[in-house]
């Protein structure tokens, strides 16, 4: 849970200019045109149709790469900007040809209809390989459309969550589950209407069930992305997430799971912690108090302590730091996890201050040993390695100061 950072709202665009295109001349006589298929365009196009396809495909690949390398939400604005530039160029080209257009709402209806023919087989797990590819293509195209807020609202109004996402989550194919979770996250991101609809239809419980029962790293990663989109800036959804074991499940992930999943879990808790801290910055006193009352129903901080999150996080930090010391050789690679766990310790420290203080004798030597190791690498470093090393030293020093130095209230 990425895997935003909260520029999602800026990244999502209105669908007022969104068009799906199919020229009259390319339709075979007496044959019904299918706007779900890309037709061949005349040679007068500035970009040949194969190049247009390639560009669209590259946008999807870039988005997938962004998602793997950072929070899903962080990647979103960059992808949307690339899409917007390309899409505007495409519109100009096609407008010049005076081709027919299909609105996004009409296209959504067509995809709904197309999915219905596969729905039962999705649930029973009896799809052929060709069927699986067709379903994945439908989900992929829907996800592409739902990056626009208005389209996501239409999708929700058409009961897309229950008619399309839910059957996919109830099925057995992990690729389809993964794409459905991605679709759910795209629909819910910064979209209160979709978030409310998802809460009403128990999608938080459904995603938590998939997260707790599935072992595939891509599926679990997409679960955390979807959960983040469903509960961020929505206290009622956060309460449902906590009440149905969300924090407890994240604790299990910190105890034993793949590093990528552990990082996403930590980032989600960080985001929820910062979200609460930012309430203090609301200028209007009445609005600030109202927001605080809304968030108070979650008992987030008490639940974190009750599920031993502080202990689990500090144990993970110790394990990470000790592994860095084992090799006794500094590497510029694979420092992402160290950075995330250190940042998480810093972010959560106001809540975990007492717990960290009680295990100071365990934490302090590990932190000091890693600092000493980084401050005395005993090898010749490149400029890039030196910069990375300095950054890590500053981060670990900040960690040490934050969790061990007394706060102003204690002085």
UniProtKB/TrEMBL annotation:
Residues 1-35 are annotated as: Disordered. GO terms for cellular component: endoplasmic reticulum lumen. Belongs to the SIL1 family. InterPro entries: ARM-like (IPR011989), ARM-type_fold (IPR016024), Hsp70_NEF-Inhibitors (IPR050693). This is Nucleotide exchange factor SIL1. It is found in: Endoplasmic reticulum lumen. GO terms for molecular function: adenyl-nucleotide exchange factor activity. One of its GO terms (biological process) is protein transport.
């Amino acid at each position: 849970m990425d895997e935003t950072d909260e520029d999602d709202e800026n990244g999502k665009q209105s669908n007022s200019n969104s068009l799906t295109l199919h020229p009259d001349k390319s339709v075979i006589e007496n044959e019904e045109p299918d706007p779900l298929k890309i037709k061949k365009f005349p040679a007068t196009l500035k970009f040949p149709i194969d190049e247009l396809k390639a560009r669209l495909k590259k946008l999807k690949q870039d988005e997938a790469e962004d998602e793997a390398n950072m929070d899903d939400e962080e990647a979103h604005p960059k992808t949307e900007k690339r899409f917007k530039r390309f899409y505007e160029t495409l519109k100009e080209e096609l407008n010049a040809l005076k081709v027919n257009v299909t609105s996004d709402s009409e296209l959504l209806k067509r995809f709904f209809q197309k999915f219905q023919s596969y729905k039962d087989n999705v649930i029973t797990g009896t799809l052929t390989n060709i069927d699986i590819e067709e379903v994945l293509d439908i989900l992929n195209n829907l996800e592409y459309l739902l990056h626009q807020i208005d389209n996501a609202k239409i999708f929700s109004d058409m009961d897309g969550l229950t008619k399309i996402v839910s059957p996919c989550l109830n099925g057995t194919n992990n690729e389809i589950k993964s794409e459905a979770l991605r679709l759910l996250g795209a629909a819910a991101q910064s979209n209160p209407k979709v978030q409310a609809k998802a809460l009403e239809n128990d999608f938080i419980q459904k995603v938590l069930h998939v997260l707790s029962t599935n072992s595939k790293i891509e599926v679990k990663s997409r679960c955390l992305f979807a959960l983040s989109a469903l509960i961020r800036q929505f206290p009622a959804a956060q309460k449902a997430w906590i009440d149905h074991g969300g924090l407890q499940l994240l604790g299990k992930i910190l105890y034993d799971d793949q590093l990528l999943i552990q990082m996403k879990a930590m980032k989600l808790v960080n985001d929820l912690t910062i979200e609460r801290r930012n309430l203090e910055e609301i200028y209007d006193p009445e609005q600030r108090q109202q927001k605080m009352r809304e968030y108070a129903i979650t008992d987030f901080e008490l639940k974190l302590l009750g599920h031993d999150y502080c202990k689990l996080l500090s144990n993970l930090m110790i394990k990470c730091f000790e592994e860095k010391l084992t090799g006794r050789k500094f590497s510029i690679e694979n420092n992402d996890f160290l950075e995330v766990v250190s940042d998480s310790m810093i972010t959560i420290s106001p809540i975990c201050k007492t717990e960290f203080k009680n295990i100071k004798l365990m934490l302090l030597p590990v932190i000091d040993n890693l600092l000493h190791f980084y401050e005395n690498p005993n090898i010749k470093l490149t400029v890039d390695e030196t910069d990375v090393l300095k950054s890590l030293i500053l981060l670990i020093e900040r960690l040490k100061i934050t969790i061990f130095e007394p706060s102003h209230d204690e002085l």
